[in-house]
Amino acid sequence: MDISTTANPAPVDDARxxxxxxxxxxxxxxxxxxxTIEWTPERGWHDARxxxxxxxxxxxxxxxxxxxxxxxxxxxxxxxxxGSVHLFRPEENAKRMVxxxxxxxxxxxxxxxxxxxxxxxxxxxxxxxxxxxxxGEKSLYLRPFMFASEAFLGVRPAQHVTFMVIxxxxxxxxxxGIKPVTLWLTEDYTRAGRGGMGAAKTGGNYASSLVAQQxxxxxxxxxxxxxxxxxxKYVEELGGxxxxxxxxxxxxxxxxxxxxxxxxxxxxxxxxxxxxxxxxEERKLSIDEWRDGVASGAITEIFACGTxxxxxxxxSLKWDGGEAPAPASTELTMRIRQALVDVQFxxxxxxxxxxxxxx
Length: 359
Prior knowledge:
It catalyses: L-leucine + 2-oxoglutarate = 4-methyl-2-oxopentanoate + L-glutamate; L-valine + 2-oxoglutarate = 3-methyl-2-oxobutanoate + L-glutamate; L-isoleucine + 2-oxoglutarate = (S)-3-methyl-2-oxopentanoate + L-glutamate. Belongs to the class-IV pyridoxal-phosphate-dependent aminotransferase family. Its cofactor is pyridoxal 5'-phosphate. The radius of gyration is 21 Å and the shape is globular. The chain is of the alpha+beta class. The mean pLDDT is 95. It has helices spanning 14-22, 64-67, 90-103, 111-124, 203-207, 210-218, 264-275, 287-296, 331-344, and strands at residues 4-5, 33-40, 44-52, 70-72, 75-79, 85-88, 139-148, 161-170, 181-185, 223-227, 235-238, 242-247, 252-255, 280-283, 299-306, 310-319, 322-324, 355-357. The strands form two sheets. Strands 1, 2, 3, 4, 5, 6, 7, 8 and 18 form a nine-stranded mixed beta sheet that branches. Strands 9, 10, 11, 12, 13, 14, 15, 16 and 17 form a nine-stranded mixed beta sheet that branches. It folds into two domains: 4-172, D-amino Acid Aminotransferase, Chain A, domain 1 (2-Layer Sandwich), CATH 3.30.470; 181-344, D-amino Acid Aminotransferase, subunit A, domain 2 (D-amino Acid Aminotransferase, Chain A, domain 2). It has nine helices and 18 strands. Helices cover 25% and strands 29% of the residues. α3 (90-103) packs across α4 (111-124).
């Protein structure tokens, strides 16, 4: 796919950029450019371009605003010590967007075109990729997304689709050090059901988690835990993170996919844990097994993972009328986290072939 480039005539100046990169936060500052690719049935994917970052003009009847036909991805670019910039497993994000597109009745953007679009934006805004010192974890967060851009009111797949990529520098997820997150068990809300969109990365899944997250916050917790929609007894995932349970015999269990999002970090941890000598089981795990396992000491650690936080230890679990204490240890959790972060930032050998150099 040919991608044209129109440089931003008024990029953020160096002094202001230095201020932003010193304390980027998350998702609040955006780079100088964006990528756009259009699709129609007649022309397929066409008009791929890098242009100055700026607002979109949408007709009030634009289909995504009414029928939520939308998918997105989340990934990062990392600057290594030698100054080079690398993406973490971009082909896996591209493949997941293909799977999400099938579920949302979208055209499929080929993997190689997805990766080329992300690379084009990183190359255009390479100066926005933070440099780290003293083991820092700043990166450039990339948000590819696709939406129904046809102006039409009617329940059918859109005949005009727009794919875009934007980017935002991101600081370390945990300010002041990594601390176990407290979790709230929602017994009123579910994220997904059999045959639903749980395995697709689409905005509707996140929208459905927000009221439960409000509930968690009101009860003094950091995140919410969702159970399955069929029986209301099996752990699925958090609002935006996958779960792992470490047992006293060294086994690690993670909820099986189907109604949960297949995270790129999740898949990487399965490989990494195996290399570290731990058998990983993908199976159903009930909330009772969680509570009883922590109480008996059979479950020694619990952690969650995702693109933003990478890996975070899990502390106590609360629900209406009860609380399970934090597991006894975070040793393996932090070992896995450090091993993964070291590969991403080029501080350890990439024996898995995960890193994709840009340029």
